[in-house]
Design a protein that fits this description.
About 50% of the residues lie in helices and about 15% in strands. The chain has 19 helices and 18 strands. The two termini are about 60 Å apart.
Length: about 550
């Protein structure tokens, strides 16, 4: 890399808990001051300072770092400086990729100040850079191993390690590793187990809790932090759902056991969490006051097991799986069949899980829905097969009627604007020459330049807008041509199949007039099909 005269520098600072006890020398403030002083001495421009405080160096999914990369891609930065290599990261594979490949390919100079690393100067310090990356990575791995060992030891002693209070409990004010009963939510937990032991299913329990206005665990946590003076009136946004309710019913924490170690991260470089088999969980009995008795817990487990349905695995996905959604809430529509097998229908997934407070049912009979989709595909296939050009023109008018009507005029205006811009560039050059030769006084020169610059700026905006509009017309026409070729493949078919639906359709939505009963049919329900390339065709 050749040395440049003008550098546009990015100062990057990072700090996390893995960086040990020497927090003062490694602090964000210390890093920023050191790097800013060095950059100022070199006479370089600081474009921005990018900070990741509290982010691990083992991965590069950090907001400050990603913002810096975005600015590099925009060409705003041609120099990156950090205090040392470990501030860039502690993953030797990705660090090497950035310092050896990414930065050089984009002509970005990289400096790690205290490590003496400078990609402009290929000195002996650069030869050992890969080894420094490996040492930084090994440090992160060692710290991760020690932290995991400490946490496992605490878990085996029955100390609570969660970041949030488990529903029904609070962390002890004097010892955050101990739990005490939350008198506000513990009765709700007790009632949930009692309803389950009495034979109520999780959906019915959720419906009762939601209709009584009892806040779900997530909403309760939000309510505790809510400040009416700052946030206004509290508005409930989420509801009780079956998944979380079942996790409560299966949790032995409510009989006084400390249950932890249910997940693990496969690698210290990854944030992905994997489940651990139940037999390997860390369970320590009698660590806090139970909310329910063991007998009530066991009875709830028996009733849940008795109600458990055996779901037969499908040989293949259902016909409309992944395509049909509720327009009201965006949740996938769920397909159900009555117990006697006589009727099959769809209802909103959120309505099924939570109840009518979350969304209306959007009920529709399977055969009715099937017929609507089948007829719409046949109708469009027939239109494009009989007169493809006319059908495409009508669709073009639907998608970009205004732009299409004005396309011819826009093309003329665009050519005129580009010609005027070229003329202004010539005039601008002549004006500079006249001023340099003394033919044009400075005050007249300044006036001309201001006028030319203003007109050029306006022309550039107009050209960009016209090109964008014309590009939309071209893209829309290309998409319609692609759709026309696709739909004509299905001018003759007997039954719908998954290949056809997934080739033709992006998604299907159903809208239902609020307050409807499930058996109301006709104009109150609207089905919209969003075809590939062209979207909805009305």
């Amino acid at each position: 890399m050749r040395e440049q005269q003008n550098y546009r520098a990015a100062i990057y600072c990072r700090l996390s808990s893995e960086d040990g006890a020497d927090h003062e020398s490694m602090s964000i403030g210390n890093q920023r001051a050191l790097l800013a002083e060095y950059v100022a001495k070199q006479g370089w421009e600081v474009v921005d300072t990018y900070i990741d405080d509290g982010f691990s160096g083992t991965n590069f999914d950090r907001p400050g770092f990603q913002r810096m990369i975005a600015d590099i891609e925009k060409g705003r930065i041609n120099l990156v400086i950090t205090k040392d290599l470990s501030r860039l990261g502690r993953n030797y594979i990705l660090c090497g990729q950035y310092t050896e490949i990414y930065f050089p390919e984009r002509h970005v100079r990289y400096i790690a100040l205290n490590d003496g690393v400078d990609t402009l100067n290929q000195t002996s310090s650069m030869d050992i850079t890969p080894f420094k990356h490996i040492l930084n990575d090994m440090y992160a791995k060692d710290i991760s191993t020690k932290i995991k060992s400490t946490l496992h030891a605490k878990a085996r002693r029955g100390e609570y390690l969660g970041a949030l209070d488990p529903y029904g409990y609070l962390r002890h004010p004097d010892d955050k590793h101990k739990l005490i009963i939350n008198e506000e939510t513990a009765p709700i937990v007790r009632r949930i187990f009692e309803m389950s032991a009495a034979g109520m299913g999780s959906r019915s329990i959720c419906t009762v809790l939601n209709e009584e206005g009892i806040l779900s665990p997530a909403e309760y946590a939000r309510f505790r932090k809510h400040d009416p003076a700052r946030d206004g009136e509290f508005v409930r946004k989420r509801f009780w759902g079956q998944t979380y309710l079942r996790s409560i019913l299966k949790n032995e924490m409510y009989v006084g056991c400390m249950v932890q170690g249910r997940q693990y991260t496969p690698s210290y470089r990854s944030k992905k969490r994997e489940p651990i088999p139940k037999e390997d969980w860390i369970v320590v009995p009698d660590m806090h006051e139970p909310i329910i008795s063991r007998e009530l817990f066991d009875e709830a487990q028996k009733k849940m097991q008795a109600r458990k349905k055996v779901i037969k695995p499908l040989d293949e996905p259902r016909l409309f799986s992944g395509l049909f959604y509720c327009e009201g809430c965006g949740t996938a529509m769920r397909q159900h069949t009555t117990s006697n097998g006589k009727y099959t229908y769809f209802i909103c997934g959120k309505h099924h899980s939570i109840g009518k407070l979350a969304c209306s049912s959007h009920y529709i009979n399977y055969d009715t829905f099937y017929q609507v989709i089948q007829e719409d595909i046949r109708r469009n296939a027939k239109l494009f097969s009989e007169d493809s050009e006319r059908a495409a023109q009508k669709l073009m008018e639907l998608k970009c009627a205004d732009e299409q009507k004005q396309a011819a005029k826009m093309n003329r205006d665009l050519a005129s604007a580009k010609k005027r811009l070229a003329d202004l560039d010539v005039k601008l050059k002549r004006t500079y020459e006249d001023n340099m030769n003394g033919k044009l006084p400075d005050h007249i020169f300044s006036m001309f330049i201001a006028d030319y610059d203003a007109e050029r700026a306006g022309l550039r905006l107009s050209i960009a807008d016209m090109e964008k509009a014309l590009e939309k017309v071209r893209d829309t026409k290309a998409d319609i041509d692609r759709f026309a070729k696709l739909i004509q493949k299905y001018t003759s078919f007997e039954e719908l199949d998954r290949f056809m639906l997934n080739e033709l359709i992006d998604r299907i939505t159903i809208y239902e007039t609020p307050g409807m009963g499930r058996n109301r049919i006709g104009k109150e329900k609207t089905i919209t099909i969003y075809y590939k390339f062209v979207g909805a065709i009305q």
